[in-house]
Amino acid sequence: MNAVLVGLQWGDEGKGKVIDYLCQKHDVIVRFQGGNNAGHTVVVQGKKFVFHLIPSGILREEKICAIGNGVVVDPKVLIEEITALKSQGIKITPENFKVSPLCHVIFPYHKMIDTLREKKRLHKIGTTKRGIGPCYVDKVTRCGIRMIDFIDSKSFAEKLKDNIINQNYIFRKVYGFKGFSFEEVYAEYNALAKKIKPYVCDLVDYFYKSRDKKFLFEGAQGTFLDIDFGTYPFVTSSSVITSNACLGSGLSFIPVSKYIGVAKAYTTRVGEGPFPTELNGKYLDYFRNKGVEFGATTGRPRRCGWLDLVLLRRAVILNNITELVITKLDVLDGLKKIKVCLGYKRSGKVLTEFPYDLSGIKPVYKEFDGWSGSVCQARKFSDLPKNARSYVEFIESFLGVKAKFISVGEKRESVLKK
Q: Could you say which of 21, 264, 330, 407 has the lowest number of CB atoms within 10 Å?
């Protein structure tokens, strides 16, 4: 069955490993939004693979991986990623990896304006400074450069020159920055375009002819980083939720029957913004160290907190989730008490509806007993300690969705099917 997989929190839920596991039963894995501000990590036989643009399904040789039109692509990062994976023995060819000609391309001026805008802000949003937002801005204002233009030297030169003239004017007038040389940027990026060109493919035409294959659509970031439904303005610049899988890939003719949501057994986020269950002190140190909570893309330490089921329930509704995947259950090993947020208070009053403004929110907690020993060796749900099973079952009951898989460690095989 065809499926869409998304994160249900603020990203970093462990989607890369889950995709690697699930794609055993799928033929095609399609990334449909975001850019290289996302990072997926998969550990196979002790080797760590970090992905920023290419779907992690590329680790399985017989699969086809694609980057959809909803993704913005940094050519330097893509070539670096292809080169690194090939050096690790991973096969990447135009037959098993494809890039939509309608993807928009990130250039140095996008990254620079991202950095300069953040410096000017009174309230920082915590951008990764990868140029993602400014590239989407160009897309919407109809001055972006798409992959189809990028791989055509003449068209690329014309569009790049026009953009650099306009961007340099803004750089000088607004930020006091000298700007960029058209000749230098064109020379560097035209060389990159030639390397990427073999992978560019009309995904609509190609996959329409092979629509009998099984598809897995892969989202980046997490639901509460969605440009519309997230904790705005502390969000990403694209639509993260499942309904964007069709628009971000162009593959509306692929019927989807499963909507899979991935959530950690606790909560993390990177960057600025509200976080009702955020922890400090010994518990923050515990989660960061045991969960290795540092960004795969930026290396930034993640903020950590207890599981927030109010957020998760809203994410389940927004994404029409039919199956749940719980990750990093093993990180809770050894805790005597575990808290879960079941409601919100503001100014002493219990809120009965979901508040998109999370400022001033106080969580209402339920406390669970922890468990002794480790869950890492469990391969069946019955192998888990009783209290760990109770914890998972409570999450299922609260959300009204069954957990199909539970990850109990970083290794590829550390997954149990419930």
A: 21
